[in-house]
Write a structure and sequence with these properties.
heterotrimer, A mainly alpha (356), B mainly alpha (306), C alpha/beta (353), B: 306 residues, mainly alpha, ABC transporter involved in vitamin B12 uptake, BtuC, two-stranded antiparallel sheet, globular, C: 353 residues, alpha/beta, Rossmann fold, 2 domains, six-stranded parallel β-sheet, six-stranded mixed β-sheet, 11 helices, 42% helix, disordered N terminus
Chain lengths: 356, 306, 353
């Protein structure tokens, strides 16, 4: 009586919404073992991971702050992945956005004006786009695989940031420590809710979700992206230019990652520091896929992943669980989320005869 | 001259873990599966190998254990992507998160534990040949194994019948399926081989390269291995070249710093990454050749009933 | 409605921050690395364990907290969770710590290696360069090739201070000695740290020093038959022969003292930069392989540093061009030491800027 996966005639509408719920339930069940081994009550651990972090208004705003860069990058990466463009170097593009945006903020040190913040964000976008443009150029001109170039350029970006923060960008009054000045108030993103760190980046992220959704479902470009991704030959036959799609998707994802970098430095961080991202560029790849490469899906998956990060901190604080447990727990959660989607296209069939 | 030999010896140890993991990933990718979880499999190999040598004192068992750890970690990936049709890219990334966490959990008791490293295996007589003897015939067993595996994988991919089937599955799973080959089974085996090699590569880190255990000690080498497969445009010989190029420049820039040239160290540290990009650009310009080597079904899921 | 909820939360927070606190003291720690790094964060965690053991208070830690946007949230969470005193143990936590401290005036904060203080924010760090002076003396006496190899992480003042203290001391006992520095651009990558040590040995260094976290350079020294020193903790287990001694970061006495002060209400904001004298910096046992006269000399130096008759940076000190920067009879001020970004005479290479 082994269950067997049988392909459905049509994708299950119900499972589109039910499979994440199922994944969550499976994660809870599977994690019982993990938490019992660690000597904590599973109920307490689940509470720490999923409820405690968002049990206060402040916690909720922090969830949004944490999810914002993931949403921004995840939506844009999803476009590229749909077109079969494997930009796995969003982390580097984010760093360049931080450098460009942050340098702009420092340029306007102790100056005021409403143009400063838009300029920071635009420069961030430009920085990210430039870094991604290298990838696009090498891909379209020299046929160099973007998996390698984008990944390698991430390491280069990290070292470039390091070079600059130990040199020209460091605080002149900062005892030669690798940190920039604190940005002036005019270069800090407006706060949406006083007393928290919830900044306008959250609204920008929501806008990006909307734009991404319209772009994918309502525009010719979105159509071209999908066709080129699903059937490159058909796309080329229809006269769509793969080169153009490569450039556009890379510039979009690079620009979004750069924007995220600028938002991080002028938002929750408020200065340039050697490490401005705990790996958002890489996490956003997971976010894009768990969100099924759909902008609205990305929004939800970013919130789930962000919650698991916050939950990991709470689990350490409340239950003294080492961070390693969070890694295992996140791994389980992602495994189940990714595997449960199988039920959208397949159903379980219990065969009567024993399969030998 | 002495410095050159010494540098080459260091390059060999730096390249070996990359070579193991990249050779494994090459086979996985040849079957049409992209496993981004190399880092996770490597780190599992590192901790289990170290734990085993610490508990049993046996190098052989430790190497086997790290291989097994890689295989088991890869099994998780294989089940998810082949049985449950999970997307390969995020599943691989999730595997890395999982592996880094689990290895840290398992390794808590191994922090601060010392091990002198697996012994060198000098091949009698010829290891005393000047210059070449030390470089070629006075290494540890895993270095020999890594070179041996280059030939094995080369032969397997290019000259063996199973290798032909593997490539057929990677190029067009539907056609291979139509010919009666079990796509799922072949891919599973390729994933497991990738895991085994990544596991040994990780084991090399904790048993020979820097024989100790600390959390996250792979420090991104799994990612480099992944990039090397792409760099090699899926050719076995070029994987070897890539691993030694990357390892070589990493070591040479350290030497250049020690000599004292006035270039910022951050720029020096960029060199291996930049060199890899530049060489890739130089060897990629022939579009059609690359297309021939790249597994056409890479990253695409296979649905049997279609 | 939201306002009301918020005020309830604020009220609850103030309760946990003050009322319950007096009943049972809670101590929080924030680490930049995993406690399994066997280096910087590991040593801070040893300090935390000592606090638990000696004072019987409840402690909490959060490990691998990145120095970007995450730090402020974690520190704030610890504060809101009713911790009475919170130790933030990396330079990059400076601004987040001070931001949170303003919002939680009743919580005491202790920030390691920074320079911004507040009414409820203290700073503390170790004068690890005092230890480097002893290492420099041993190295200067024991090197045969007159070359010390230095595996360095990032060009921050702390690391540069260590390099300078080493060479100043080494040159006093051996004017011909030189230091070669290799930067690995990481605190933590055992493989790369070991490779750097190999490169340095290949280029003639017969003493290896490090300012990175893992014992890998020591293991390399052991295999190659050269001398080396442990970093942050006694690393003799990793290199029984090569390990001459080690500079140990011992945070335990300070942590116990400060938590005690918080408990009995005597805590006040201050800047602590302690070395041998208070035991924040401790030397591991000296190896028998160090000649007896050198061992005696080093012990003597340690005593002199403790009683103030010897300072690691007392003049004359020359820069790389040979110009006198600190005159005979003067010592560098703490302020100049804190921001040190130039090499003294005898260091090969330039400081990355």
């Amino acid at each position: 009586m082994l269950p067997k996966l049988v392909m459905r005639q049509a994708p299950s509408k119900a499972m589109v919404y039910l499979s994440p719920v199922l994944a969550l339930v499976l994660t809870l069940v599977a994690s019982i073992v993990l938490f019992l081994i660690m000597g904590v009550s599973p109920a307490a651990a689940w509470h720490a991971f999923f409820l405690e972090p968002i049990s206060t208004i402040y916690g909720l705003t922090e969830l949004v702050v944490k999810a914002t860069p993931l949403v921004l990058i995840g939506v844009a990466l999803a476009l590229g992945f749909r077109a079969g463009v494997w930009n796995i170097g969003a982390e580097g593009q984010l760093i360049l956005g931080g450098i460009f945006g942050g340098t702009t903020a420092l340029f306007f040190y102790e100056k005021t004006g409403f143009h400063i913040i838009p300029l920071i964000l635009i420069m961030g976008i430009i920085g990210g786009m430039l870094w991604a443009a290298i990838v696009a150029f090498l891909k379209t001109r020299f046929n160099a695989n973007e998996i390698l170039t984008s990944l390698m350029l991430s390491y280069v970006a990290d070292l470039l940031m390091n070079l600059l923060i130990h040199g020209p960008l460091k605080d002149p009054d900062g005892f030669n420590f690798p940190e920039s000045r604190l940005f002036s108030d005019s270069a800090l993103l407006p706060i949406l809710y006083e007393g928290t760190r919830l900044h306008i980046g959250a609204i920008i992220a929501l806008l990006v979700v909307g734009i991404g959704w319209i772009l994918l479902s309502r525009t010719l470009l979105g159509y071209q992206i999908k066709v080129i991704g699903d059937a490159p030959a058909a796309g080329e036959h229809a006269g769509f230019s793969p080169t153009k799609i490569i450039w556009i998707t890379l510039l979009i994802s690079g620009g979004a990652a750069g924007l995220a970098g600028a938002i991080e430095v002028s938002g929750p961080i408020g200065q340039i520091v050697p490490v401005i991202s705990p790996g958002y560029g890489f996490a956003a790849i997971i976010v894009a896929y768990v969100g099924r490469l759909h902008p609205v899906g990305v929004l939800f998956s970013a919130l789930i992943l962000a919650l698991s990060y916050l939950g990991g901190e709470t689990a350490q604080i409340k239950l003294n669980l080492p961070l390693a447990v969070t890694g295992v727990f996140q791994g389980l959660l992602l495994f189940f989320l990714l595997a449960s989607d199988v039920l959208i296209h397949y159903r379980l069939k219990f065969t009567q005869q024993a399969t030998l | 001259m002495d410095i050159l030999i010494a540098a080459i010896l260091t390059i060999i140890t730096a390249a070996t873990p990359l070579l193991f993991a990249a050779l494994g990933e090459l086979i996985t990718e040849k079957s049409g599966v992209l496993n981004l979880g190399v880092e996770g499999m490597m780190i599992m190999g590192a901790i289990i190998g170290f734990l085993t040598v610490n508990q049993t004192g046996s190098v052989t068992l430790a190497i086997l254990a790290s291989m097994l750890a890689g295989i088991l970690t890869a099994t998780v990936f294989g089940i998810l992507v082949l049985v449950f049709h999970a997307s390969q890219v995020p599943t691989g990334l999730a595997l890395t998160i999982f592996g880094l966490g689990l290895s840290a959990l398992i390794g808590q008791s191994m922090i601060g534990v010392a091990y002198e490293g697996i012994p060198k295996l000098a091949i009698p007589v010829i290891s005393s040949i000047p210059i070449l003897g030390d470089i070629l015939f006075n290494q540890d067993i895993l270095v020999y194994l890594s070179i041996f595996m280059v030939f094995v994988v080369y032969w397997f991919v290019n000259s063996s019948r199973p290798g032909l089937i593997l490539r057929a599955v990677g190029d067009s799973h539907d056609a291979a399926h139509a010919m009666g080959y079990s796509v799922i089974k072949i891919r599973f085996l390729a994933i497991l081989f990738g895991g085994a090699m990544a596991g040994i590569g990780g084991g090399y880190l904790s048993l020979a390269y820097s024989p100790l255990w600390v959390e996250g000690m792979t420090a991104g080498r799994g990612w480099i291995a992944l990039a090397l497969v792409v760099f090699a445009s899926w050719k076995v010989g070029r994987v070897f070249m890539g691993a030694y190029l990357f390892g070589g420049i990493t070591i040479l820039q350290l030497h250049a710093q020690a000599i004292g040239i006035g270039i910022p160290p951050q720029v020096m540290s960029m060199l291996p990454y930049l060199a890899t990009i530049i060489v890739l650009v130089l060897i990629s310009s022939d579009r059609t050749k690359i297309k021939l080597n790249a597994p056409a079904s890479l990253g695409k899921p296979f649905h049997e009933s279609r | 409605m939201i306002k009301k909820t918020l005020s309830i939360i604020a009220f609850a927070a103030s309760l946990t921050a003050t009322g319950i606190a007096s009943a049972e003291t809670k101590v929080g720690f924030v680490y930049v690395g995993p406690i399994g790094d066997h280096g910087w964060s590991y040593q801070h965690n040893q300090g935390r364990l000592a606090v638990e053991k000696e004072l019987g208070v409840k402690t909490t830690y959060v490990e691998s907290v990145k120095e970007g946007a995450d730090a402020e949230r974690v520190i704030r969470k610890l504060a809101a969770d009713g911790n009475d005193i919170i130790f933030t143990t990396s330079f990059g936590y400076m601004n987040p710590t001070n931001k949170v401290a303003k919002k939680f005036p009743n919580v005491k904060f202790e920030h390691a290696t920074g320079y911004k203080r507040g009414k409820n924010v203290s700073t503390y760090s170790g004068r690890f360069y005092e230890g480097r002076t002893l290492l420099g003396t041993i190295a200067g006496k024991m090197t045969k090739t007159n070359t010390i190899g230095y595996v360095a992480s990032f060009p921050i003042p702390e690391v540069i201070r260590g390099i300078n203290a080493t060479i100043i001391a080494a040159r006093k006992v051996n004017p011909d000695v030189k230091i070669k520095v290799v930067w690995v651009s990481t605190w933590f990558d055992p493989g790369k740290e070991g490779d750097a040590a190999k490169a340095l040995i290949d280029q003639g260094a017969d003493i290896i020093m490090q300012h990175t976290d893992s014992p890998a350079p020591l293991q390399v020294a052991e295999k190659r038959g050269v001398w080396a020193f442990g970093q942050a903790s006694d690393m003799k287990a990793f290199a029984p022969k090569a390990h001459l001694t080690a500079i140990i970061d011992d945070w335990a006495p300070y942590y116990v003292e400060r938590v005690k002060a918080a408990m009995d209400g005597t805590w006040e904001s201050k800047d602590t930069w302690d070395g041998f004298k208070t035991g924040m910096v401790v030397m591991a046992p000296l190896s028998e392989d160090i000649p007896e006269d050198v061992r005696k000399m080093v012990k003597e130096q340690e005593k002199m540093i403790i009683d103030g008759t010897l300072h690691s940076f007392q003049g004359p000190i020359k820069n790389q061009k040979g110009e006198i920067v600190v005159k005979e009879g003067e010592t560098m001020s703490d302020k100049d030491l804190a921001g040190m970004n130039w090499y003294v005479e005898g260091v090969d290479g330039t400081i990355p800027k």
